[in-house]
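thought: fold this chain, then report.
action: predict
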Amino acid sequence: MAGNFSFDQLKKAVSSGEIDTVLACIVDMQGRLAGKRFLAQYFVDSAHDETHGCNYLLAADIDMEPVPGYKAASWSKGYGDFVMKPDLATLRRIPWLEKTALVICDVLDHHTHDDLPHSPRAILKKQVKRLSERGYIGYFASELEFYLFNETYDSVRKKHWQGLDTASPYIGDYQIGITTKEEGVMRRLRNEMEAAGIPIENSKGEWGPGQEEINVRYAEALDMADRHVILKNGAKEIAESEGKAISFMSKYNYGLAGNSSHIHNSLWSADGRTPLFFDKKADWTLSTLGQQWAAGQLKYAKEFTWFLAPYINSYKRFQAGTFAPTKIMWSEDNRTAGFRLCGEGTKGIRMECRIGGADLNPYLAFAALIAAGLAGIDEKLELQKPFVGDAYQASRLPEIPKTLRDATETLAKSKMLKQALGEDVLEHYVHTAKWEQLEYDRRITDWELHRGFERY
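observation:
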């Protein structure tokens, strides 16, 4: 939960005129920042304690349409307020916006001032607390991939998202020469995120023309999720200021690589000094605890896939031969696997979940992985032997759900998630998934028109 700016520092910066705006942000169900821009002096005087927002923000779809059928918020209940409680530990300067600071807010019930259970940040905090009660810290790192376009967001819309000009004309995976063309945005992104208290390890070209990957240094789970959403929001703001556009869409083009968000995760001692997954005498140097954790994630992967792939489009990414997984299994340093063991033989040993796309909400994804890992520990599950070979061609391995409909069905039936997250919380997100499917099912797509309109 570490920002780079204390409240006392903010007060001094406001007094001197260095900061005149504070963004107070919650994270919505889609993993986006939503909130208010405060005159900084007003935030320092009173709004740092709390402010309020309409509770439809956690009951709306990606188009901000209020979705009927939620228990937590509805027209019949009047769409009242919830409390936005700034977590001042997340306060940070935002270098790419003039004289601006940002703080992440927890979402609280308007009457009780308890965490709102279906708030994404509250869901993750609950799972982090479960780790803490056992003396564990969960360290996470989410890699983010995205496409960078020599387009503005306006020009992209006017082209109807077709025939877009990518920042590089061909694949520049790891290539330094071609990615130099993209440095106008990428250099700013690395340096200005670092200045905002989000430590960037590196960026690189990815396996698509104009596709980028940026790696943030690992952190405690809640801190990492905060970093993730600020980075996504800031990347788009920086790109727009440079006359460019960015997309984190899971699969924007059928013929090109999808955008992933691989999630590295491990457990450490409560003081953060001792890696609990490393045992040099164990198979694969992965401790019994680590093996049980991984086995839980494998066992329940179908049940929590929706938290890693929440949209219709998310499932278009799972294609053989594209570096996106199609099977639920684990392997040693094998990029065809749904789960990959990294850092074998070192204190940095960890599991990498490769299922998630860049369109995921990190709070929900991390929470689901923690819940499954803890279930594996509680059930003392035994980790299967690692798969060797090309998982795309292995016919007997369990498959990742192929569609949003399939993933929603397994999500709704998950006893593990119901127990870990709470029945009402699970129901809230099952309803979210069903609404997304309904919205798709009743629309006519360009593909349908192309294939089905009368030809003469």
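thought: worth noting. The first strand starts at residue 21 and ends at 27.
final: tokens above.
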